[in-house]
Amino acid sequence: MAKNKVDLGCAQTRGTFILSGKVIGTQSNSFFAEGDTKNGGSYRRVHFGVEIEEGKIVYLDLFGASQDAVYFSKTVKGADGKNKTDTKSVKWADRFKTSKQLFGEDGYRLIGVTCGCKKVLDSKGHEVNDRKYLTPYDACDEIQNLEDGQSVFIRGNITYSTYNNQHRVSFEPQQVSLCKEIDFDNVDFKPTAQFTQNIVCMGVAKNEEVQGEAIVNAKIVNYSSIEGAELYTRNAALARNLKKLGEYCHIKVWGNIEVQGDTAPVEEDLGDWGESNAMERVASPFKRKLMITGADKESIDKEAYSEEVIENAMAVIAGIQGAKNDYGMKDDGDEDWGSKPGAKGNLDDEDDDFDLGI
Fold first, then answer.
1. Is residue 60 packed enough to be buried (19+ CB in 10 Å), middle (13-18) or exposed (0-12)?
2. Domains of the chain as residue ranges with CATH
3. pLDDT digits (tens), the chain, 358 positions
């Protein structure tokens, strides 16, 4: 329940992910941090990696701050007999109380992060996850129980932002649970790292750097910003269909989170001055790609995120940012739609621009 939510005239285009793998990075100085916020509260942050297959790591970030209230929810039957969600506000200081203590009844659950980061024995003596429902602030503390090498399942939200004119994609966990030990060497092992994302498609073009791959340019609508993003696909028929949508068209897509090692940079010969600085040549060792494998043609909407709607939303954002600057404030089915995994499409179709050579 974001305090800074503004009416942009269009809904957020949310993205989610699931992955499983082995924890890495708990011994790093950047694993856990805490401090004070500008408004007198406190914050916590965790940053760690999950190795989804041998040598391939997805990094996750969770940030939480103290707040005035938290929220509990419960599914109840309405007067019409249909299920609905009942939400109750609770003071921050009372967040650890049970719903029985707070409301005189069981069943309400704190809206936040589900954690199962350590093992306990149940009433029958079986080892189970110590499941807790926590605010992001408290979840950061609980996640400190993780150790390198432990197998975990993680579910969460994909977030997009811009920093120093560079687009950033972050994976924010909403569930962190220990799971059955993962063995990368097992012949039956298959990596789990998938995403689903609503996008405003802005065009599709060949990836000139990678044969057989197309770049899907998109806009992502956040609660108070609109971000640019690049996704990818190797399905030629799907790429053609996405291109035919034109600009400013909403569609729901899904696929795999791929982690690729960067190609070793070419050394520059400086002649009598030796060789180039190795530290400056080293790029990030991993590049993550959201690789689209399918799309929901029933989700296509060419009106809700039209050019006019997006431009109006951008004007609202600019107005808010301008006000902050003035006051010195700072911001804290078909094969062609990929319904059959691995379908390569008919490369003899029209539009040779998307003969990706797959």
1. buried
2. 15-67+135-354 (2.40.50.140), 68-130 (no CATH)
3. 444 567 899 999 999 999 999 999 999 999 999 999 998 999 999 999 999 999 999 999 999 999 999 999 999 988 888 999 999 999 999 999 999 999 999 999 999 999 999 999 999 999 999 999 999 999 999 999 999 999 999 999 999 998 888 889 999 999 999 999 999 999 999 999 999 999 999 999 999 999 999 999 999 999 999 999 999 999 999 999 999 999 999 999 999 999 987 544 445 555 556 565 555 444 455 789 999 999 999 999 999 999 999 999 999 999 887 766 665 544 544 556 664 433 333 333 444 556 775 5
For the whole model, what pTM was predicted? Answer: 0.85
Name the amino acid, one letter, at 298. E
